[in-house]
Amino acid sequence: MAARFYGRAPGDTLDTHVTPSAIEEPSLPNTAARRASVLALAAGLLLVVEPTLAAAQEQRNETRKERRERRAALAAAEEALPLEFKEFLSNVHFLISEPEREAFLEVTQDYQRRAWIERFWRVRDPYPDSPRNEFRIRWEERLLYVDREFEGPRSDRARMFLFNGEPSGRIQFQCTMVTWPIEIWFYSHSDRVGHEFFLLFYRRGNQQHYELWHPSDGIDRLLDFGVGRQDVAAEIQSCASGDVAAAAINWLLRSNGLEFATLMARLDERPEAPSAEWTLTFEAYTTDVPEDAEPLEATLDVRFPARYQARTVVEALVEVDPASARRDVIGGQSSYNFFLTGEVLRGEDLFENFRYKFDLPLGAGADAAQAGGDGKPPILLSFERRLRPGDYHLVLKIEDLNGGRFARMEQPLGVPALEAPAARQLDPAVQKIIDQAEAVLTSDVPTVQLLEPPGELQTGFVRFDTLATGDIAEMRFWLDGGEVARKRRPPFSVELDLGSTPRVHVLRATAHDAEGAEIASDEISLNAGRNRFAVRFAEPREGVRYDGEVHVEVDLQVPDGSLVERLELHLNDEPVATLYQEPWSQLVELPAGDAITYLRAAAYLVDGNTTDAVVYVNAPDYLEIVDIQYVELYATALHRSGRPYEELRADQVRILEDGAPQEILRFQRVTDLPVHLQVMLDVSASMVKRLGVAREAALDLFQTEITPRDRAALVTFNDHPYLASDFTNDTGSLAGSLAGLKAERGTALYDAIVFGLYYLNGIKGQRALLLLSDGKDESSRFSFDQALEYAQRSGVAVYAIGLGKQPGPARRALSRLANQTGGRAFFIAEIAELAGVYDRILGELRSRYLITYQSTNTSGNRRFREIEADATAPGVSIRTLKGYYP
Length: 886
What we know:
The chain is 26% helix and 32% strand. It is an alpha+beta fold.
C-alpha cells in the first residue's frame, strides 16, 4: 500500500492516505477549532507585546558593543562557577529568566548561591503553604529521565519533555538510505494542549543530537541521499514502522504553518517566571559590600549572657564611630539611620540570615556636638539571636543609609552550652495574659476566658483556646452572633475558618451548667485593628436574672496611645456613676418592679472621641432588638469642569441602594471635619531615583495640610509593609518618620493595601488612604480581589497615585480600587507632579458632603449592597463609595 505526503513536498504524487497501525492517527482540528487556535495565538502575542516593548525601552540605551561586553562577562562568570552551580544553570536553562540568571551570577559566595537556589524554587512553588514543592519535584523527576534518555537538558527533545511530560507513545524510525534517524512522539493530550498531536525529531549526518522538525522546513530535511523524490513515500512505508512514520509526517504536513505555530506556541512556552524582584530582596539580605564603598568605622563585641530553653542567647553589640556616620535632617528633625544585615554560617551552608533597621533620632535642631564626632560616645547598635550550642561563623554588614558608607565584619562564633536557664523578663503583654490566666485558674467561681491567637491579621483556619474554671457542662462558641460549635469536655477549644480576608469578627464563648443555663461568658474582637475604640458590658449579661442590684463590669478597647478621660454609666436616662480609672466597675441599684431597664456606658477619650454600648437588664423573652442600619457616605460633588461643586443641596441628590430609593436624613458640607490621612509610600527598588522627591512631597503635605484637628500616619512598603509613624498631628514626628528611607527589594502592593486599611479600622469619621506606587504587585499573599473586598468592607476612600508608565493590568487595578471606594486614581509621568496631586486630593477631602440615610433593606443578609449616587444639578456628578457590606 502506498502513501502520499500532503503539504510542502513537491514531486509527491501518490494519493493513498495511511492510518498507522501502532498509533491511531489524530483527527485534524475542524475549521472552528483552527480559527480558535489562531485567535488564541493572536491573544498570546498581544499579551507579550507590552512587556516586550517595555524591556526594549529599558535596553534601548545599551549599544551593541556594551551588549556584547555584558554577555561576554556573563558567559565568563558562568564558566568560572564551581561545577554544582554550572549544573544548576544547565538544569534550569528553560526556567530561569535573564534577570534571574544575571542576579545569580552576581552572587559571590557559595553558601549564598545555595540559599539563592532554594529561594529560586520557593518562588515557583504553586502551593507555598504545603510542605512539598510540587513544581520542583516534577521538574527534577523529568530531569532524571532527560539525563538518562537524551543528549542533555538543553536539547529539543529535553525541552519538549520538560515542558510537556512523557508522551503517550514514542517510536524510533530509520529507513536506511532514505531518511535520517527519526523519533516520533505521540500525545493523546498534554497539560497545555487538550487534543492529540505528533512531534517529530530527526538527527542528520554526524550530529549528536536530535532536532525538532517543523513542516515549514520541508520534507528534504528528513531525507538521506540516494533515492529519487518520486519513491520517497513508498520507500518509507516499506520500512519497519513505516506506516507510523508516514502518518505522523502526513499529519504534520497537513497542518498549515499557522496551525503548527499555534500548537508550538503552547508546547514551547516556558513556564511563567515570577518577577525578578525577588532577587532584589535576596540581594538586600546578603552581606556583600559595593567595591567602591567608603568604609564605616565600627567594632563588634559578642557575649553569651544566658540560656533560653535549649538554646544559648547570643548578644552582639556594634559600636559605630559617629565621626564616620552621617545624620539625616528633614523637617528640622535629625537622626542616624542604619541597616544591619547578618548571616550565620554553619559549615559551608547559610544557617540563618537576619536584618534590622536602626532609626536613632537626635531631636529637633540637634547640632554637630549633640550628634557626635571626635571624642563623643559611639553609636550603639545591639541585637540578639538564639542559637543551639555549636560552631558557627558570623558575618555582619552595617550600612549608613545617610552617608552611603559600609562596614563588614566576620568572626568565628563558638556558641557554648550554658547550664542554668536564663531568667528572662516577659513582654508586658505576655505577662498580663499569664497573670490573668493565674487569676482565673485559682478561682472556684465558674469563669471562661477566650485567649486571643498570636498575630494581628487573622485569616483561614485559626485555633481558639479558653481558660475555664468551675463546674462547666458545656461550652458554646458564637461567631458574629451565630452558634458555630459546642464542646462538652475540656479542653474547650475550637478551630474556625475566618475566611481568606481579615474581616472584623466577634467571637463569644458561653459556659453552661447541666441544665443549659449560662453561667459565664467571654468575648473577643478579631481583626478590629489597633485604633478601635469600643465598650462592652461583661456584666450584666442578657438572659440572666438580677434582683435588687447588679455589679456592672465594663471592658474598654482603647486605641494605641490614647487615654481614657472618663466612663459614664446611665441607668435608663439617669446618670448613676462616672469612673476615671480602672477597674471599670460599679455597683448599681436596680429599680423595683418588672419595668424594662437598660444600662448605657459612654466612654470618652482625652482627644474628645466617644463611644457607647447598651445592655438590657431582666428583659422579657419576647423583647426583640432591631438593628437599624444607618449608612454614612462621604461624597465629592464635581462640576463638569473637574472642580469640586460647593453649592449642592440635599433635594438635588438621589441615593439608590440595590436600586431602591433611600431617604436622606442628613446632608452637610464638611469643610472643617477632621481627617485621618494615611500616606502609603512605595520604597521598592524601582523607586531609587524618585524616592527623594517623593519624600519631600510627603513632608510638604504633612507640614502644610495637616491641621491640629487632623491626624496623619505613614506606611512604607516594598515586599513588606512597615508602620513608620502612628497617627499623630505632630509634624515633627511625621517628618522624622521620613528619615533613613531606602529604595530596595520587591513590591507586595496588595498586602500593603490590606495592612493600611487594617490600621485605619476602628477610626470614626473621615478617613482616606493615599497610595503612591510606581509598579504592579509582585509578591503579595493577598490577591487583588481580596484587597478590593477588604477595601469595600473598610469604607475608606483610597486615592491611588500611579507613577511612571504603569502596565495595563496594574493601571486598571488602581483605577478600580479607587473608583469602588469613592476615591480617585491619578497617573503621573514625573515625580515632580506629586505635590500638585496631593493638593488636589486634600482639596477634595476639605469640600466633601456627609450624607446619611437609614437603609430600607431589613432582610438581615450580609451581602454586598450597591450604592448609586447622582445629582440633578446641571453638569454635576457625585463620587462616593460604590457599595458596602452591612
